[in-house]
Amino acid sequence: MDIKLKEIELEKRDILNNLMQLYLHNISLNFPMDFDSNTGMYGYDDIEKYFENDNNKAFFILKENEIAGFMLIDLLDEKNIVQEMFVLNNYKRKGVGKTAVSILFDKFKGNWEIKSLPCSENAEKFWISSVKEYTNDKFNLEYVGKFNRAVLTFNND
Predict the structure, then answer these.
(1) The dihedral of CA 86, 89, 92, 94: what is its sign?
(2) Counting Cβ atoms within 10 Å, is residue 13 exposed (0-12), middle (13-18) or buried (19+)?
(3) Which of 82, 41, 34, 76 has its CA nearest to residue 58?
(4) Where do the DSSP E strands lie in the chain?
(5) Helices 96-107 and 121-135 sit at what angle, rounded to 10 degrees?
(6) How buried is 137 (Cβ within 10 angstroms: 0-12 exposed, 13-18 middle, 19+ buried)?
(7) What CATH number belongs to 3-155?
(8) SS3 of 130, please?
C-alpha cells in the first residue's frame, strides 16, 4: 500500500479547508459542533496556525498520490500532539489511517499525546489499536473530562 504524508503548502490551504468541513460534519454525529446556517459552514478557527510557524504542521494523507485525508500536528517542546486526523470514507478500514499514523510517529520522535474524539467509540478504538501496535503496548491511557475522552501518551525516542 503506497501511503505518504505530504506537508500542505499554503496554496493548497483551500483543499484543507474543504476537507475540514467534511471532517467537522462527520464528527458532528457524535459531538456537538457550531454550524453557521448563513454560510453553510462549520466553525474552525485554528487552520491558519498550521501555515504560520514550524511548530504546527498540516499534512495530506496520500494513497497512490491521491488525497485520502489530513492530519494537523502541534510539535511542542514538551510533547507532540495530534490535534486532528481525518480519513475520507472511501479509505477507512483499509489500513490507510494506521499506516499514516506510523509514518507520522516515525517522522517525529519524542513524547506524544493523542486525545481521541469525544463520544466516538470508533475513533477511540482506532487510536488505541494504532498506538498499541506502534508502541508494542508501551503507552498510557486515561479517560478525562466530562466526555470521558481517551487520552493516549507515549514516548518513541
Answers:
(1) negative
(2) middle
(3) 82
(4) 3-7, 35-36, 41-42, 56-63, 66-75, 80-87, 111-115, 140-144, 149-155
(5) 50
(6) exposed
(7) 3.40.630.30
(8) helix
pTM of the shown model: 0.93
d(CA 64, CA 3): 7
Enclosing H/E stretch for 48: none
Q: What is the pLDDT confidence band of residue 29, given thresholds at 50, 70 and 90?
A: confident
Residue the block writes with cell 478500514: 93
Residues 66, 35 contacting (CB under 8 angstroms): no
DSSP symbol at 123? H
- Model confidence over 40-74: pLDDT tens digits? 899 888 899 999 989 999 999 999 999 999 999 99
**Cβ count within 10 A of residue 88:** 18
Q: In the chain, where are the structural domains located?
A: 3-155
Q: Which of 41, 32, 44 is nearest to 70 (CA)?
A: 44
Give the burial string for 26-56 (b: 16+ CB within 10 Å, else e).
bbeeeeeeeeeeeeeebeeeebeebbeeeeb
Cell of 145: 473530562
